[in-house]
Amino acid sequence: MSSDSSVSRRTLLAGGVAAVGTSVLGAESSAATAFDEAPWIDAHSHIWTPDTSRFKLQPGMTVEDLAPKSFTADELMAIARPAGVGRVVLIQHTLFHGYDTSYLTDAWQRHPELFRVVGMVDDLRPNAGRAMRQLLQQGVTGFRIVPRTGITDWLQTDGMTEMWKTAAETGQSICCLINPVNLPEVSAACGRHPDTPVVIDHFGRVGIDGQIRDGDVNQLCALSKHTNVRIKISAYYALGNKQPPHHELIPMIRRLYEAFGADRLMWASDCPYQLDGNNNYAASIALIRDAIDFVTDEERRKLLRTTAEKTFFFDA
Ligand SMILES: [Zn+2]
């Protein structure tokens, strides 16, 4: 397909969303060339819908709490595709949906070629491993874990141990939303479960208070001794200066590249949060696509596609 026709087709698709609000995805999913036009993978975005009668919010939440009010799969792809992003890993968001992953797995069922899901299971309930295997049949190739307050050694509950062991067998990744203070305990868990695929979200949130400390970066880099650990270089709106062009993050990205290599780093936006204030999607992908100068073209492709593809885009 010529570049002219791709542009006009993309414009048409984007216009379709704005004009009638119908699915941009249905038209695109039948096109064999879709991944050539939009080759990159966003390894982390959330979506939600104001249709709370079909997809219930967790107790205490109402449609008024949704901010933005709507960020559906269609709205996400209308922003992502012009940036060359054709596939996205959808991440469970407990704030609105608790442990209920049904809105994300519904998106996967409608468009399994475009999406994979990082879900959540409650490790304090029985049969966490069985739940993980069932969700694998619905496109869930990773599970988010977060430190639980009030639980001594949250990484060593029976359910959490079952999750890490199950993930080692299924290939689903344990995805850690943590702060720098949690890096030592996560490293210890990686040592106990060397065969478990692990992904650290958002640089381990190094720089979340505005300060990118060498000690924190060193601890993050030290995780590279565990060969199944990968890092999401993502959520720029939340780290360092928290403003485009995000270039203050480049030295940390370079350190991680030297420690992990491009095979173990993946870019992600963390939408819709990257779409707030001065932050935007274009500035997020531009940091990796255009600004860093220490990678080869092939390595840049790994950061923007291949690492996430190998980590998340597999079938049950
Ligand atoms: Zn997120």
Task: Compile the SSE list and pairings.
Blueprint: H1 3-20, H2 24-29, H3 34-37, E1 40-45, H4 73-80, E2 85-91, H5 94-97, H6 102-110, E3 115-119, H7 128-136, E4 140-145, H8 158-170, E5 173-176, H9 183-192, E6 198-200, H10 214-222, E7 229-234, H11 250-260, E8 265-268, H12 281-291, H13 297-312
Parallel strand pairs: 1-2, 2-3, 3-4, 4-5, 5-6, 6-7, 7-8
Helix pairs in contact: 7-8, 10-11
Q: What's this, in brief?
A:
This protein has 316 residues and is an alpha/beta fold.
Which descriptors apply to this entry?
316 residues; alpha/beta; TIM Barrel; 8 strands; 41% helix; disordered N terminus; binds zinc ion
Structure explained in plain terms:
This protein has 316 residues and is an alpha/beta fold. The chain has a single domain (38-312), classed as TIM Barrel. The chain has 13 helices and eight strands. It has helices at residues 3-20, 24-29, 34-37, 73-80, 94-97, 102-110, 128-136, 158-170, 183-192, 214-222, 250-260, 281-291, 297-312; strands spanning 40-45, 85-91, 115-119, 140-145, 173-176, 198-200, 229-234, 265-268. The chain has an eight-stranded parallel beta sheet with strand order 1-2-3-4-5-6-7-8. Helix 9 links the parallel strand 5 and strand 6 (198-200). The chain is globular, with a radius of gyration of 19 Å. The two termini are 32 Å apart. Residues 1-22 and 27-32 have low confidence and may be disordered. Bound molecules: zinc ion (ZN).
Rounded to an integer in angstroms, the radius of gyration calculated over CA atoms is 19 Å
Q: Report, as a whole number of angstroms, the end-to-end distance.
A: 32 Å
User: What can be said about the biggest beta sheet?
Assistant: 8 strands, parallel
Order of helices and strands: HHHEHEHHEHEHEHEHEHEHH
Mean pLDDT: 91
Classify the fold: give the CATH topology. TIM Barrel
Could you tell me which ligands this complex binds, including any ions or cofactors? zinc ion
Strand residue content: 5-15%
The total of beta strands comes to 8
